Amino acid sequence: MYKRYVLEIDDFEYLIENFKGDELEYASKEVEQRGHVLELVNGKISASEISAKLLNNSCKPHFFLSHSSQDKELVTKFANYLYETFEIKSFIDSQLWGNIREATTEYLEKYCRGDGDYYFLDPALRAINNTDSILSSALLEAMDQSDCIIFVKSNNSAELNFEFNKIPESEVKYNQYTLSPWIAIEIRYANFLRVKRHEEIYSEISMESASFTSKSVKNSIEPPHFEHSLDLRDYRVIPLEAVEIASEAIKERSTYDPRLYTPVGFNVDILYATIDKFDTIKNIN
Residue 196: which domain range? Predict the structure, then answer.
């Protein structure tokens, strides 16, 4: 991981409106990842094999997009825009979520279901704990491999801290929270990752959770929400104008030196440099 940014997705809607939002243009169409995962839910389960299948290491993304599943369509459009404009491949975390949740559902149905609409608690918790551990490891690996982590901010992924009146005014814009534990984990991981470039940049010439429904014990009491704080102090906001300028700049590659960069590496660094020229950091509230 080399860079960290916040992208306010609402600012980019007009730019990406003409792109497809249902699947990534560069995703494998031959075999569904779901099939790879479910093949392994039999007898003894290898966590490392499941993680490898989930990550699909044949396609190592340049950017990691952390977002709410409710914004998946817009985020996929943005990922396709990045690919068509800059040749940047992005890792969309909600796709990983969907795969692991489907594997969990298969396991619960196969090994944990009792009579009727009930599950045996101990094996169900064991399954959920193990798959969450696998997911956590896979997310960390994908983030570490990426050149850039982008937190896609929207009303679905982050809100102001409800105690903002107790926070110094200069710190308010950084004190936000999310209801998604996985977005919180991704932001926390990103704040501690080692700084390194993606392997393709200089070489020779990829929870908000997907929807998960299953029959369970009915509870008439609405459970409380868990709120997770987000530390965004070291994240720069991506200005729409910077992306538009960079998209024009890469059309003229007079300074491009193939001995130093791959084509996508040149595009990535042009994008970074253009974003970073905008010295005034937009208030991300």
Answer: 3-210+227-276
**What string of DSSP letters covers 138-159?**
HHHHHHHH-SEEEEEE-TTT-E
- Provide the pLDDT for residue 124: 82
CB 228 within 8 A of CB 183: yes
215 found inside a domain: no
Quote the number of domains for the chain.
1
Q: Is residue 77 part of a domain?
A: yes
Looking at residue 210, its pLDDT comes to: 35
* Cβ–Cβ under 8 Å, residues 255 and 73: no
On whether residue 24 sits in a domain, the answer given is: yes
The 10s digit of each residue's pLDDT in 91-146 is 887 766 666 777 778 778 877 888 777 888 888 888 888 878 878 888 888 889 89
* pLDDT value at residue 29: 44
Cα-Cα end-to-end distance for the chain: 25
Report how far residue 4's alpha carbon sits from residue 281's, in angstroms, rounded to the nearest whole number.
Answer: 13
